[in-house]
TrEMBL record:
Domain (Nuclear pore localisation protein Npl4 ubiquitin-like): residue spans on this chain: 2-27
Annotated region (Disordered), positions in chain: 1-27
Protein name: Nuclear pore localisation protein Npl4 ubiquitin-like domain-containing protein
Organism: Bracon brevicornis
Length: 27
């Protein structure tokens, strides 16, 4: 899991090896 800080607060998301940073930010 990754911890991402955003305006909504810290979010935890499951990241798969096939996912890229670009795809994560596009969501």
């Amino acid at each position: 899991t990754l911890r991402i800080q955003s305006s909504e607060g810290t979010k935890r998301i499951d990241v798969h090896p096939t996912d890229t940073v670009t795809q994560l930010f596009e969501k």
